[in-house]
Specification:
179 residues, four-stranded antiparallel sheet, 9 strands, Immunoglobulin-like
Amino acid sequence: MAAAIIAAAGLVYAVLGGYWDRVYMRLSPRPVIQISFRYDKDGSGYELMNSGIGPAIVKWFKAEVNGQLQPDWKSAAKALGLSFPIENVHFINPVPGAVYLPGKPGHIFWIPQSPASDVLKENWKLAKLEICYCSIYDQCWYASNVVDERGVGLGSCDDAPASFFGHTALTIETREPKS
């Protein structure tokens, strides 16, 4: 009888230990994405940073300006009052499946110091940038550059856009070979 009680206690201990170990492992590598606007003497633009300790895998990204969904950075820039061409503009489309490792911030839309960067500094609050990202354990979170009074992003991963940001503007030009 004593052996059965000890065996049962060992089984309970093993099951609970395994459960808490799994909870710890799922929470340990959590990514934390932040989207912010930054300007300095070199220019201005939006940055994305993973300040967590695990990789962030993009599920979707979207941009709105004045409440209107934008298909790509060029459309978003025009809606923010920028005119083209913009010299040396740098942008990245955070595409589904892209992995952001923990570390320093990366520009997702950046304009070197110029009259265009001054326009962006004036109008940056018109844009709402949103991202849904997941951990390697497929737990997903939402982040936005627009936050409420608690510092929490306004939205959820359920608000997925109908198309991928940056892909609707891609066109393939075909040219007939010159004879």
